[in-house]
Here is the input.
Amino acid sequence: MKSVKESIKKDLKRFGIESSKNEECPICKYGRRITVTVNGIETSHCKYCDDKKLVQELNIATTESEKRLQTLRSKAKYFSRIPEDLKDVKLNDYVTESDEQTRAKQMAIGFITGFDKEKSFVMSGDPGIGKSHIAVAIAKALSNDYSVLFLKSADILGLIRDSYNGSSHTEQDVFDICQQVDLLVLDDIGAEYDKSSSDDESWASDILFRILDSRLGKSTVVTTNYSESQLENKFGMNGKRIVSRMQDTAEKIRIQGNDWRKK
Ligand SMILES: Nc1ncnc2c1ncn2[C@@H]1O[C@H](COP(=O)(O)OP(=O)(O)OP(=O)(O)O)[C@@H](O)[C@H]1O
Ligand SMILES: [Mg+2]
Ligand SMILES: [Zn+2]
Here is the structure.
């Protein structure tokens, strides 16, 4: 008499299944992984892994900490303002024409792969050399696994101004999200206000100070056209304190290169 195993094998053959394997899943090391070969094409499934993938795809949070992360990520997404022209940029597209650009790219890769929610990264340099390009690429690379907020510093002031004018968010909401995210990308610091109004200047620098102060010990990526001493000057009374917080646990690079916008 044929063994059950053999007769099943024969049945499988009739359905075009050339071979099958049932083993402990090497990915989760928990479920059983079934591998079948049909027409020379091998496919593997583990019910446990498949369910996990489905939960991820449907965005169903399972644990409390996952739920918190998801809420924070949706909030960050709501407030983020990635410039339209940089929406699709990737670190791979960043062309390096100078030693600093090569270093900046390497530092960005290091920042992403070693992301620890604590270290910061400051890029300074002339317009059009790709600082925001790199900053957006970093934000996008980390936003699948972390809560990431991307704002130009002028956008932060804009959001706060909106909160005085009947927007659906409050000033506190803006401070909260800036403080809570795993990574805040603060693009173009120093370009946020018009020098002509000195009132605006101290208001703006108070806000930026509060935000950077609230992020001590947390990861922030900053880009700017200005040098440290120029920023210190720009932010008046808060200058030194802003620059010092901006650089807390930060790797810094001043990038030289050609203005890509003039190409
Ligand atoms: N090295 C580069 N390789 C590929 N694209 C680049 C590079 N540098 C800049 N770009 C592109 O040029 C445009 C301007 O770059 P980006 O906005 O990043 O400049 P920036 O340094 O932030 O300038 P600014 O100081 O004016 O904000 C973007 O479309 C960007 O993708
Ligand atoms: Mg920029
Ligand atoms: Zn599995």
